Amino acid sequence: MHWLKQLMRRRRYIEISESIREHLEEKIADLMDDGMNRVEAERSARHEFGNVTLIEERSREIWQWSILESTYADLGYAARKLRRAPAFTITCLLTLALGIGATTAVFSTINTILLHPLPYVDPGRLVLVSESLPMEGSNDVGVSAQEYLDYRSQNSVFTETAAFETADFNLTGAGEPRRINAARISASALPLLEVTPELGRNFSPEEDRYGSDRVALLSHALWQSQYGSALDIVGKSIHLDETAYTVVGVMPASFRFPLDGEPPSERASIWLPMAFAPNLLSPDNRTMEFGVGLIGRLKPTVSPQQVQTDMNQIANRFMRQYGYSGTIRVSPQVYPFSAHSVERARPLLILLAASVLCVLLIAGANTANLLLARASARTQEMALRMAIGASRPRLIRQCLAESSLLGILGSVAGILVAILLVAGLKHFGPTSLPRLHDVVIHPSVLLFALALSLITSLFFGLAPAWRLSRVDPQASLRSARQVSSDRGGQRLQNCVASAEIALAFVLLIVGGLLLQSFTRLLESPFGFDPQSAFTVRTVFDHVRYPDSIKRDIVQKQLLDRLARLPGIAAVAEASHLPLSDSREIGFRLEHAAQDDFHMAENSLVSPGYFHAMGITLVEGRDFNLDDRRDSTPVAIINQGLNRAYFPGQNPVGQRLHWGDRATFTIIGVTGDVHVSSLDTDSPPMIYLDMFQIESGVSGKTAFILRGKTAGPELLPAIREQIWSVDSELPLYEAATLQSLISQSLAQRSFTLVLLGTFAVIALLLASIGIFGVISYLVAQRSSEFGVRMALGATRSQIANLVLSRGVVIAIIGCLCGGVLSAFASRLLLTSLYRTDWYDPAMLCYVPLLLFVVVLLASWLPARRAAATDPMLAIRNE
Amino acid sequence: MHGYALAQNIKAVSNDLLQIEEGSLYPALQRLLKAGFLKSEMGLSARSRPVRVFSLTTVGRKRLEEERSSFEKMFAGINRVLTVAQS
User: Is A828 within 8 Å of A751 (Cβ atoms)?
Assistant: First the structure.
C-alpha cells in the first residue's frame, strides 16, 4: 500500500504546484491588464503572493507524515554532506570510535576482573561479617564458631545466615593424586544464595553435624575433568585425605562461592558441610580459632547501618557474658559481599574509572571541537538557506540529522572497536589476571559511552543553527569575513582545546606517579632473593602420616634426594611462603601478663631455609639438626618483631610463649620479608623449626630449590624423586619465586599499562584537537594574513602569530591541568608506594611534553599560514 | 472557486480590511481538503483558462454552519458584555 500512498501524494504535490502556478498566471494577466509590463507584473505578483517555495513546502507538509519523511530526506542529505568532507568525517568517527570503544572495553574488563558481578539473586543484599581485633591491629580475622552461632540466633536483620571456611584436601583414587581447594559451607548457604545444585541435592541440616558430615558437592569443573561428567556420580564415594565421602550433588559452573573473586586455580572444587567440630563448640574454646566466614542476606527494609548496630550489640553482649579480656576484644565489621574482595583494589578502581572518563571526555571534547570548526565554516551555507526561506526549526532539524548520523556511525564504529579490543585483550592479556576470559562488554557502560558521545555530537552539531540565531544572515552572506569575526565560537573552541590539554596533563601526571611508585616498589628490597629459585608444594596429611617421627624421616629423605639433583645448590622446606601464604599466631612475651597477647606471622621451616630463600640472618644462628623434638624449643624472629618488642636489647636468648604449646628461646634474627604483598610493610614474624614442633593442622609444605637449573624444566626430575619415596604425594603450585613477585605485582602492572595507554590516547586526541583548532583558525584568517603580509609582515611573524595561539591554549590547559592533577594525585595517594603526590620533576616534564606536542600540532597549520600568497588571499575577498 | 479568485474575493468582500499574503491561502486550503471539507476539480477561470476549482462538500457545509453559529453566539456574548460594561 505504501507505493499507492506515495503515488497519490505525488499527485497532490503536483496539484499544489499547479494551482499556485495558475494563481500567479491569473494574477499576472490581471496586472498586465492594468497596464504593467510582463516583468513588472511578475515581480509584483510574486511579491504579493509570498515565498513560493516555502508555501509549496508548507502546503505539502499538510499531506506528509511530515517528520518521518523530512527526517529521511535530511539524513540522505547529511550522508552526502559527510561523504563530501572525508577528512572531517574520518577524524570525527575515529575519535568517537576510540573514545567509545576503548573506554567500553577497558571498563568492561575492570568490571569483570575487579568487580565480578555475582551470580546470585539480588547480590546487593548479601553482606559479610568479619571481626577485627583492634587491640592487636588484626583486621578481618572472621568469627569463631560459637560467635557465628550467636550472630545467627540473636540477629534481627538477616533473613538467613551461613558460615563458610576454606580448606584443602588430597583427592586420591581418580588418576594422579591431586591437591584440591575445598570450602566448608553450612547447609543454609545454598538456600541463602538461592542456588541449587545442577545435579543431586544440597546437604541436609542433619548432614551439617559433626560425625554425619561425610558428604560432598562437586564443582562442575571437577565433575567434568575427574569423573567425565558421569550422571551417576551422585551416590558414589570419593576419597579426600584418605577418608570416604559420598557425593550428593554437582554445582553449576557459575557457582564459585565463597572465592568468587579468586582466579580459577584457587576456587573451591568441592564443598563439604560446615559441621563444627565439638572441641570448637566447648565453652573454653570460644576464641581459640577464628577464621569462620559469616554471610547474611539482609531483610528487605534493613540498611547497612542497622546491620552494623545490630552486630555491635550482639558482640558486646557475648563479650560481656563470656568475659573477653586483654587484647581479645572483637569488633564486628560489615562489608557488602560483592565489594569485600576488591576492598584493597578500590582506590585503583576509582582511579581507572576516572581515567576512562577523562579519555571519554577528551574524545567528546574533540568531537565537539571538530563540529564547532565545521559549524563556523557552514554558517554561510546556513545563512543562504535561511535567506531563501528555511525556518530556524527546519535548519535545526537539518543540523540534528547530520550530527546524529555522525553520532550513530561513530557509535557503531565504537562498538566494533570495543568488541575487537575485548577479543584482543582476552587473547594477549596477561594470563595471571583472574577471570580475563569471562570479560564481556558491559551493557550499561556501553550505553553510557554511547549516550555521552551522542549527546556531544548532537549538542555541538546544533552549533551552526544556534549561531545563526545571533548572526544576521544578510551580513553573513555579504562577507566571508563576517564569519571569522565570530569571536564567541572561537573562544569556545579554545576553551575546549585547553580542557583537552588539562585532562591529558592530569592523566600524564597520574601515569607518571604510578610509574614512579611501581619502579620504587621494584627497587625496594624484597627481603629474599627471587633469582634462580623454584618452589613446589605437597602435603603430608595427618591421616597418611599420623606419626610425626616417620614424617620427619620421609621429609629429610626427600630434602636429601632433591639436594642431589644436578645444579641445585640449596634445598629447604617451609610451611608458609612469603607473598603466597599467611598464618598468624598469637604469642606472649615471657613475664608478660596472661592476657597480653600479640600476633605475628609464622612459618615452620627446615634448617637451611634462610640460605635457600636468600634471607639474611642478621644475628644469632640458623636452626640445625640438633634442634630436635626433645631439645629446647627455639625460634628465629625477624627484625620487625625485634624492633617492636625488644628495642635496644639483644633478643637472642629471650623467650616467648606460643599459647600452651611451648616456650621458645630466640636463637636468631633475620631480615624482614614482605608477606602479604610487596607494598605492605613486613609484619613481625616468628620462624620455628618444622622438625622440632608439630606443623599445626594442615601438613602443607613447600620445597624450595635454589640453583642455576632451578626452574619449571626441573619439575619432572623433582616429581620423580618425590614419587620414588611416596607415589601418593600430590604435587602442586610449582612456580619460580620470581613468578610470585610478578603475581603480586600483576594488578599494579595491569593498572600501569592501562593508565599508560589512556595517557597516550589522551595525548593523541588532544594533539588532534589542537591541530583541528589551529588549522581552522588559519583557514578562517587566511585573507587577514594576506593583508598583513601585503602590509609588510614577514612569514615568520605570521607563523609566530599562529603558534602563539597554540602556546596560549597550552598555557591555560597546563595551568588548569596542574590544579586538577593536585586533586587527582591526592586521591591516588593511598595506592602509591613511597611516592609523594607532589613531584617537582614530573611537574616540569609533563608541561614540557605537552608544549612540544602542542607546538608540533600547530606547526603544520602555521607553516601553511606562512605560505599564504598575499595576492591570492586578497583576491579571494 | 479557484485560488486566485478566492483571494480576490476575500479582498473585495472585506473591503481590503483583511490583508493576507495570498500564498498563505494554500496551506489552509490543503488542510481543508485533507479534512474533507473541500473538494477540488478542474474548472474554468474568469479568463476561461483551465484551473483547479475548490468547492465545499456536504460535510464542509455542515461544519461551516456550525462554526458560523458558534462564532455568532460568541460574538453576541461579547457584544452583550461590552454593552453592559458601557452602561
Answer: no
- In whole angstroms, give the CA distance from residue A767 to residue A852: 10
CB atoms within 10 A of CB B56: 15
Pairing of strands A215-218, A243-250: parallel
**How is residue A459 written as a grid cell?**
549538542
B7–chain A Cβ distance below 8 A for any pair: yes
Q: Within its chain, how far is the Cα of A733 from the centroid?
A: 26
pLDDT along chain A (877 residues), means of 10: 68 84 86 88 86 82 71 84 82 83 80 69 86 76 89 93 88 76 92 91 91 91 87 89 90 82 73 88 76 90 89 90 78 80 61 79 80 73 76 77 84 88 75 65 78 76 65 59 55 84 89 87 86 90 81 91 92 90 83 81 92 93 90 93 91 86 90 84 90 74 91 90 86 86 77 82 84 79 83 88 90 92 81 78 89 89 83 68
Does residue B15 share a domain with residue B2? yes
Task: Using the predicted structure, report yes or no on whether residue B65 has a pLDDT greater than 50.
Answer: yes
**Nearest-neighbour CA in chain A from B66: distance (Å):** 24
d(CA A492, CA A262): 48
Q: What 3-state class would DSSP assign to A287?
A: coil
Start-to-end Cα distance in chain B: 45
Note whether B15 and B48 are same-domain residues. yes
Q: Output DSSP code: residue A676.
A: S
- What is the value of ipTM here, to two decimals? 0.82
How large is the angle between the packed helices A795-828 and A737-780, nearest 10 degrees?
Answer: 140
Number of domains in chain B: 2
Instruction: Say how far apart CA B46 and CA A811 lie, in whole Å.
Output: 77
We report the CATH number of the domain holding residue B42 as: 1.10.10.10
Query: With an 8 Å Cβ cutoff, are A62 and B30 in contact?
Result: yes
Query: Do both B15 and B40 map to the same domain?
Result: yes
pLDDT for A488: 64
H or E element at residue A698: none
Which B residues 21-50 touch A at CB under 8 Å? 21-24, 26-27, 29-31, 33-34, 40, 45-47, 49
Q: At what angle do helices A86-110 and A66-83 cross, to 10 degrees?
A: 100
CA-nearest of A737, A348, A746, A748 to A580 is A737
DSSP annotation of B36: T
Nearest to B52 among A18, A58, A59 (CB): A18
Q: Chain B residues with CB inside 8 Å of A26's CB? A: 2, 4-5, 45-47, 49, 51
pLDDT of residue A484: 46
CB A600 within 8 A of CB A686: yes
The answer to whether A237 faces chain B, any CB pair under 8 Å, is no
Q: Are residue B28 and residue B70 in the same domain, yes or no?
A: no
Residues B69 and B81 in one domain: yes
Same domain, B47 and B85: no
Q: How many CB atoms lie within 10 A of CB A647?
A: 8
- Cis peptide bond upstream of A258, omega within 30: yes
pLDDT tens readout for residues A736-753:
988 888 877 876 777 788
> Would you state the pLDDT for residue A483?
45
Q: Name the pTM for this structure.
A: 0.65
According to the model, what pLDDT value does residue A561 have? 93
**CA-CA distance, A287 to A135, in Å (whole number)?**
15
Q: What range does the domain containing B9 cover?
A: 1-56
A:B CB pairs within 8 Å: 71
Task: Check whether residue B48 and residue B63 sit in a common domain.
Answer: no
Same domain, B14 and B33: yes
Q: Can you give the pLDDT at residue A339?
A: 64
Judge: A59–B26 Cβ closer than 8 Å, yes or no. Answer: yes
State how far the Cα of B2 lies from the Cα of A19, in Å rounded to an integer: 8
Q: CB contact, 8 Å: A132 with chain B? A: no
With beta carbons under 8 A apart, name residues in chain A contacting B7.
23
